[in-house]
Amino acid sequence: MLDCKNNGLGRESVQVIDRRLCVAPMMDWTDRHCRVLHRLFAPHALLYTEMIVSAAIVRGNAARLLEYDAREHPVALQLGGCDPVELAQAARIGAAAGYDEINLNVGCPSDRVKSGAFGACLMLNPSLVAACVRSMREAVQVPVTVKCRIGIDDEDSYEFFSAFVDAVAAASVDALIVHARAAILGGLANDGVPRPGLSPKENREIPPLKYDYAHRLKAARPALPIVINGGFTDLPAIVAQTESGLDGVMLGRAAYHNPRLLAEAERAVIDPAWRVPEPWKIVEDMVAYARGQAARGVRLHSITRHMHGLMAGREGARAWRRFLSEVAAKPAALPETLYSALPILSLGLAA
Prior knowledge:
Number of helices: 16
Radius of gyration: 20 Å
Strand content: 15-25%
Strand order of the largest sheet: 3-4-5-6-7-9-13-14
Structural class: alpha/beta
CATH architecture of the largest domain: Alpha-Beta Barrel
């Protein structure tokens, strides 16, 4: 759902994207096969790539890294980096490849990202983030957005978060995706006492969610599109956020493990006429997709590893997961192998 307009900021024909429902960028998960699967559940959701380091695009095999299927649109490219010039180059390459949005990662808390001086630790350098955003916006005609946390370590007050947004907004960022938790990276606390960091998994679960930060920000900056992310696992919570005045909700692991929730959110938030697809229909569509990929040498397991949540919450879920792990994961498995699991899907066989 894209609309091309002049945004009044010096860039003509900038796309305006429907952000009411988004699927988060997730390392090792939201690859191109996963995104094709998610598109079957949510025709209008904005999908995001895994984070790709800008240097890998500029100096590496960009064609391989940026490959995607046309049915994924609208799809955003998430970049990791902190060099404004290099990020602009990567953004230009991504836009030329057809991505609908370029997103800068300012929220990932992993040690690998921290050692590279980008991700969540960039929140401590808002002027650099602003320079990166400004450089990318000058390089491309598609929207440039930022995904961030609400703070980092002891710097987790609303005042800190608001000051960070002030700098990024001054660079005319097109939208902000807010993971409503602080990132705990460790180091010295404000009192000088060493503070241990949290693992990426712990950083997704332990720091308290502060949705009110996003709501306060929206009240202060009504013109800035704001999408909220973090901890949404049920439909009422998703709908409540969209009805509160925010511009959208981003789902992460909940959508991955239970894609039916993604389809239900599509129906509740975007298209009331949308019918949640049945598992057999998804399998049918994915077999067709897998046939095309097999002709290019892609193993079936590369695709079906994302399909374990297809039967989430239904009888037969365990049998389905076992089938994917023991049968579909075999090196010689053909796409049609999935059809042998149809009795599990249609009859709800017990595990």
